[in-house]
Amino acid sequence: MVHVSLQHIIGTVALIGLAVSLALAYQIVVGYVEGNVIKTQLSQIAEYTSMSITNIISLTDFVYGMLSETEAVSKHLNLPAAINGKPYNLSILEMDGGYHVRVSIIGRNDLYAESPIALGSTQRRIMVIFTGGSSSIAGPDIEPRAWVYGGNPNTVVWCRKVIETIMKNNESAEVETIYAGLGIQRG
Amino acid sequence: MLNRALRRLRVIYDGRTLVKRGVSPVISMVIITATLLVILVIASFFATNLLEIQMQNSEFEQAKTAMLLLDKTIMDVSLRPGAASSVQFNQRSGGIGVYKGGLINVTISSPSRTLYTYVNSTYIIKYRGGSMVSVAQMNLTNPGGLIITDLSKPLGYVRIEIGNEAWIVLDYNRVRIIKNENLGTLDIYLIRLEPGVFGGSGTVSVRVQNRDINMASIQLSGSSDLMVHVNVDEHHADYPGISGVSIVRIVEVLINVSIM
Question: A23 in a domain, yes or no?
Answer without folding.
Answer: no
